[in-house]
Amino acid sequence: MTPNGRRSPTGSGGPGEGHVGRVGHVGQPFRYYLRVRYIECDAQRVVFNSRYGEYVDVSINELLRAIGILKDFTDGELDFQLVKQTIEWKSPARFDQVLELSIAATRLGTTSFTIGTEFRIAGDEKVIATAETVYVLVDARTLTKLPLPAAFRLALQDGAAGRTTDHAACEPRPAADCDARA
User: Fold this and answer.
1) What are phi and psi of 40, to 5 degrees?
2) Strands (DSSP E) along 109-161, which ranges?
3) Is residue 5 helix, strand or coil?
4) Which domain holds residue 43?
5) In what order do the strands lie in the sheet with 164-166?
6) CA neighbours within 13 Å on the CB side: how many for 116?
């Protein structure tokens, strides 16, 4: 359990509970908060399934920013491409809810890296969806595979542990304060 009474998303929960297993350090993963917009929902005001991939895409950029290497990708010679993404849904997210994404590298290969993402409604420990995303590192100009540089590997291992990016203006307030309907 964490100091705030939540089950740690890094695996201290019981058997069968979803958790983001981290490469390297033990502790809280990087967390990203976003508020579900109306345009991201279907007619029932439930988040449309394709949006979860978009949420992962935004969160990986925020993770790279938090670990100090986003500029290596936006201004440098490195890039990465998605190889595989698996998303499992357990329950829906709805319009105007704040989502908490817990993000951590779960595997570091020679040229690839895997990011695990857990989705929760902010303030609730129940995982509503999980995503496993495999990326391959490439040369930005030629798009040929590259081995993970040592600095990149180290930054992913740290993973901005315990840090948060909050695009919903929610953290660290109680979850009820984040819900516009509350």
Assistant:
1) -90, 0
2) 112-121, 127-139
3) coil
4) 30-171
5) 78-89, 127-139, 112-121, 98-108, 30-35, 164-166
6) 18
Q: Which two tokens stand for residue 55?
A: 């949420």
Asked if 119 and 55 touch (Cβ cutoff 8 Å), the reply is yes
DSSP state at residue 136: E
- How far is residue 26's CA from residue 88's CA, in Å, rounded to a whole number? 24
Q: How many domains does the chain have?
A: 1
- 79's tokens: 């890039």
What global pTM score does this model have? 0.81
**What is the number of alpha carbons within 13 Å of residue 25 lying toward its C-beta?**
15
Q: 88 vs 18, 131, 177, CA distance in Å?
A: 11, 6, 28
- CATH number for the domain including 117? 3.10.129.10
Does residue 145 fall inside a structural domain?
yes
What distance in Å separates the CA atoms of residue 12 and residue 25, rounded to the nearest whole number? 14
Tell whether 19 is covered by a domain.
Answer: no
- Quick one: tokens of 94? 């709805």
Planar angle of CA 51, 85, 144, nearest 5 degrees:
115
Coarse DSSP helix, strand, coil percentages of the chain, rounded to the nearest 5 percent: 20, 35, 45
Element (H, E) at 83: strand 78-89
Q: Give the model confidence (pLDDT) of 31-55 as tens digits.
A: 999 999 999 999 999 999 999 999 9
Residue 64 has pLDDT above 50, yes or no: yes
